[in-house]
Design a protein that fits this description.
Number of strands: 7
Number of helices: 3
CATH topology: Nuclear Transport Factor 2, Chain: A
Distance between the termini: 69 Å
Strand order of the largest sheet: 3-7-6-5-4
CATH class: Alpha Beta
CATH architecture: Roll
Helix content: 25-40%
Largest sheet: 5 strands, mixed
Strand content: 35-45%
Shape: globular
Radius of gyration: 22 Å
């Protein structure tokens, strides 16, 4: 009879315990995978913005998307195009990202710097008068096919941190 620390465990109990452990691990991995996919979605938005890929950004919005002041997806597309396709140099930096799971959705809080004017390569090179600092609150959920999409987005302009 197999014993663990002097206690006898039936083969059924061992199989059940192992099954529960595997289930717990795969569940944790699934949550972690979802969080990674949400992070990749937000990072993809920044990459699309830097490539002036309006279509790429809009493809990440759900059909029932609601933005600032309840704008819909077509209105969001016009605003995004207006911002990204203006003449001149632009670069978007993601400086902070917090992701929280709430019920069936994820809430992402992204701090984004949008620079314009003279070309810069790093966030440290930006002169505050040539950039705006924003905080975006994104509500993200999975659609029927398992793809993560943005259901809503709100933003606010932030003040530059004083040194």
């Amino acid at each position: 009879m197999p014993h663990i620390l002097g206690v006898y465990f039936s083969p059924t109990f061992k199989v059940l315990s192992l099954s529960l452990a595997i289930l717990a691990l795969t569940s944790a991995c699934s949550k972690s995978d979802d969080r990674t996919k949400v992070k990749q979605l937000v990072e993809g938005l920044v990459e699309d913005a830097n490539q002036q890929n309006v279509k790429g950004i809009v493809s990440k919005l759900s059909e029932d998307f609601k933005g600032q002041q309840q704008i819909d997806k077509p209105s969001a597309k016009r605003i995004i195009a207006g911002q990204l396709l203006r003449p001149g140099w632009k670069k978007v930096f993601l400086s902070d990202l917090e992701i929280e799971k709430k019920d069936t959705e994820f809430l992402a809080k992204a701090e984004v710097t949008m620079a314009r004017g003279n070309a810069v390569q790093t966030l440290k090179d930006i002169v505050p008068t040539n950039a705006d600092l924003f905080e975006f609150d994104l509500r993200i959920s999975k659609n029927e096919s398992g793809e993560f999409l943005i259901k809503s987005a709100k933003y606010r302009r932030k003040r530059w941190p004083s040194k």
